[in-house]
Amino acid sequence: MKILSTVGLTPDEVARLREISGAEVMDKRCRSQAEMIEFGSDGYDILFSFRAPDELIRRAPNLKWVQFLSAGADHVLKGELAARTNILITNASGIHSTPIAEYTIASMLAWSHGFHTTMRAQMRREWQRNWDFMDSVDSLRGKTLGVIGYGSIGRETARIGKALGMSILALKRNPNERSDPGWNPPGVGDPEGTLPDRWFGPDGLKELLRASDFITVTLPATPATRRMIGREEIAVMRPGAYLVNIGRGEVIDQNALIAALREKRIGGAGLDVFEREPLESESELWDLENVILTPHMSGSFKGYTSACLGLFAANLERFVRGEPLMNLVDRALGY
Questions:
Q1: Which superfamily is assigned to 2-95+301-321 in CATH?
Q2: Phi, psi of 168 (to 5 degrees)
Q3: Can you give the pLDDT at residue 73?
């Protein structure tokens, strides 16, 4: 058996994989698709990678399993990998729960305490301490947080929000399935689904939006979620509501969101993902004062690859023993 890794592991990490599986481990940090394809030209049985170009998959006729280092699967469920339905696909769901939850709460705190305003004033060397600004500052305690997509990230966001005194509303595809079967670090999230004050299914989206002061969107991009939040949904949000999107840009109608932000029909938005990336330089979002935006980096943190290696190693042990893998992507659902 041969394992192909395109991420650049340490010698100790390579040795760990060999010890678990007895496999030959080929590892190299590949910086381009061409480099990946050349590196994997002799075939392999297991792939550990951020991406899986079609030609790389074609060169592995015996490929049995792909472990991705990303949580989203929308970029891989197409082409050669989609056609070969016998290949197991697992993602890195759970790896991002802590950094993205912290990012989400940080964005909400920055908004509530006016950092988006004071940082702009700092650049202008303005001492912004007037009554209008002081009256706009608020606390998260006592507010309602709507979590759209109650997976590992949403659950950790809910845990922190609850600790800050917020009420939690949770929306998931099947709200009757409240436990989380996916991989998570110990002590993180809400594995049994005990934190939400109320649960909603997709048909309760507007009700959740009406009731929320803060909203976080953690959904993947699938046929069922694209443009899930459009003009009608934005129209029912509270005038001061703050929306954070760390899932996929395609989930929200970006033009409808921009119009609502420009006209101040909602309070503001913290955006890490966009319909097209990189975000176009001419986009209005750059200049709107009620927007805090970042370049799709909410899941980044030091030691990311090593954390993913821990999940991969645990899954590799299961693979060797013939046990079900964690974070198995459901091809029909798209995640």
A1: NAD(P)-binding Rossmann-like Domain (3.40.50.720)
A2: -120, 125
A3: 74
The CB-based long-range contact list for 47-53 (8 Å cut-off, 24+ gap) reads: 47/3, 47/4, 47/5, 47/6, 48/3, 48/4, 48/5, 48/6, 48/7, 48/312, 49/4, 49/5, 49/6, 49/7, 50/6, 50/7, 51/6, 51/75, 51/76, 52/76, 52/80, 52/81
- pLDDT under 50: residue ranges of the chain: none
Question: Which option is the CATH number for 97-293: 3.30.70.1140, 3.30.70.890, 3.40.50.720, 3.40.50.1580?
Answer: 3.40.50.720
Cα separation, 71 vs 309, in Å, equals 14
Collapsing DSSP to helix, strand or coil, 170 comes out as strand
Residue range(s) occupied by CATH 3.40.50.720 in the chain? 2-95+301-321, 97-293
- pLDDT tens readout for residues 249-263: 999 999 999 999 999
Q: Find the length of the chain.
A: 335
